Amino acid sequence: MSLKLRLIAMNFLQYFVWGAWLITIGAYWFQTRHWSGEEFGAIFSTMGLASLFMPSILGVVADKWIRAERLYGCLHILGAAILCIVPMVNDPRTLFWVMLVNMMCYMPTISLAITVAYNALKRDGADVVRVYPPIRVWGTVGFIAAMWTVSLLHLEITTGQFYVAAAAALVLGIYAFTLPPCPPRLRGSDHRSWVDALGLTSFVLFKQAKMAVFFIFAMLLGAALQLTNAYGDTFLHDFAHVAAYQDLVAVRYPAIIMSTSQVSETLFILAIPFFLKRFGIKTVMLISMLAWTLRFGLFAFGNPGDGLWMIVLSCIVYGMAFDFFNISGSLFVESQSDPAIRASAQGLFMLMTNGIGAVLGSSLSGVIIDTYFTRPDRSLEWHGIWLTFAAYSLVVAVLFVVLFRHKHVPEVIQGVPAH
């Protein structure tokens, strides 16, 4: 098998593991377990908590002591075992700790997968900038395939989703040991402090007012991302309690409808270089914030019947909301950072979005939903939930226009000069 196909298989399985439960765990939580929104917010915050420290710590381990592909494989095998434990847990507080350990295994594998792929491609003499993006797209395909698998097998509100994820994680864990070797690069020769190794030197960027404001808004948008991941599938599942909607395709297979978001994501990636070069990061980020507002607003007024077009359009808008924030933000950080701390700066960007932002978005949304939008019978008032999220995104957008100061200068994106 060619190197490209081997890395495609790795990326496909990497995101298949995540996609098998990430979007549908909410349906399991509310429809089957009938646990509270506050407790669910805590479960979703485990991704952010694990992202605060595990990728950096295990990145150091891979740099200094253990081959990256072996560490990657061990983490997935351990993660598979933990996912098999999830269905046995009957207490939400216990499940929080189980999912936290699961996320401590999974979140570092995202960066380790990139490390393994980059190392293999460079050893093969390939142009990483040109070759890797089409390989990475297969990760999104894997995420979509997992959602379709769980939905078509009617596992969205059952523990079966965790077994599907565990099976994929076990296969990937074993497969990882066959990947090209990625040995430690700093063994016996690295004398950096742990502050340097963990990427904390990048916090110097907060001394620049522009970058400090940017990272704060990255955190706020990271919170918005958790809202849509946590509650989108659950929202569609709730229509099963309405006789007029319960037999419609969108209610029977909600994960398939939600997967439109990931399809859209792959398409909007292609538009990023044009928008960045033409309009600059401030406009692109503002478009992302307004897209989040539209994403939530369409959910507020949509339904699986005559309002299905709103739900589908919301999923399409998601691609713009996610890519224009996540990928464009990463490119902006790259362009604004000193070469000596670019890797650390990217780590800081991920910390603010997938770490602090994810924790805040998951935790606060759970409290707000429990306090203001949960009826006495534990059903949820979705119209108010989505309008609140839409208002949040709109307020963030207005504040961003006022506070973020950046004059657009045509920049070089992926080595292609702007005209």
TrEMBL record:
Any Pfam family the entry gives: Nuc_H_symport
Gene Ontology molecular functions: cytidine transmembrane transporter activity; uridine transmembrane transporter activity
GO cellular component, one term: plasma membrane
Domain of life, source organism: Bacteria
Keyword annotations of the record: Cell membrane, Membrane, Transmembrane, Transmembrane helix, Transport
Compartmental location: Cell membrane
Ranges that cross the membrane: 12-30, 42-62, 71-89, 95-121, 133-155, 161-179, 212-231, 251-276, 283-301, 307-327, 348-373, 385-404
Keyword field contains Transport: yes
Residue span(s) of domain Major facilitator superfamily (MFS) profile: 210-419
Residues making up the signal peptide according to the UniProt record: none
NCBIfam families noted in UniProt: 2A0110 (TIGR00889)
Protein name: MFS transporter
